[in-house]
Amino acid sequence: MNPEIKLRQAEIEDRNIIWEIIQQSIERRRQDGSTQWQNGYPDLGTVESDIAKGFGHVLTVDGEIAVYAALILNDEPAYSTIEGAWLSDGEFVVVHRVAVNEKFAGQGMVKKLFDQIEEFTKSHGIQSVKVDTNHDNMAMLKILEGKGYSYCGEVLLKDGLRKAFEKIII
Q1: What is the DSSP code (8-state) at residue 90?
Q2: 3-state class of 128 per DSSP?
Q3: Is the overall model pTM greater than 0.85, yes or no?
Q4: How are beta strands 128-133 and 92-100 bridged, if at all?
Q5: Of all helices (H) and strands (E), which one includes residue 67?
Q6: Does the N terminus or the C terminus of the chain have fewer Cβ atoms within 10 A?
């Protein structure tokens, strides 16, 4: 039987499991030799803020949280200046802070997350999805390439330069 996979808004009751998942991801990145998320960001306050602003989302498998991500509509100040060029200048969904529950690691859950994000984007008449990642986050770079995201250049976030990608949805 196929598991039920859903994308839903995170609730404050989810914060402890989300924080645990982010801590697992921080450790996985450290073990992979990545510098991303190794400076105290994101922290529990980031998760609480995401949830309070309605940005926090979880991908659930049969009701259990498998992946966390912040989805932000049309608002990433760092994206206004890019060394390169975005594919579009219409409405967009920004994907930040993707973290996978260890229990679901290696099961293609981030690809399923992006499928759901793209479906949400299309159903709301939003033009594209924009995302950035660290130059040494090989897992995410591979996923973005496989999902058809175009490399657009580099953006400067508070903790350094990031590779920026966009996919036109409609």
Answers
A1: S
A2: strand
A3: yes
A4: parallel
A5: strand 64-73
A6: N
